[in-house]
Amino acid sequence: MMRHRLLVAVVVGAATAGVAVAPVAVADPPYKNCSEAHADGRYNITQDDPAYSAKLDRDGDGLACEPKR
């Protein structure tokens, strides 16, 4: 009887844990243009950064919003 209760508790716990995990929504990049990024102090945004957007990478080198030279 004790094993049965333990098994039920484990199954219910596993099922509940699976329900608690929800997928993460993907949002648009936070900056509409590099002027917004620069105003926020952001330069050289890399491709692995959530703020990166290909439209902000003018020369296509993987760095967005590079400072002007």
Automatic annotation (TrEMBL):
Residues 1-27 form the signal peptide. Residues 50-69 are annotated as: Disordered. Residues 55-69 have a biased composition (Basic and acidic residues). SMART domains: Excalibur. Residues 30-66 form the Excalibur calcium-binding domain. Keywords: Signal. The keyword Acyltransferase does not apply. It holds the Pfam family Excalibur. It comes from the Bacteria. This is Calcium-binding protein. It comes from Mycolicibacter kumamotonensis.
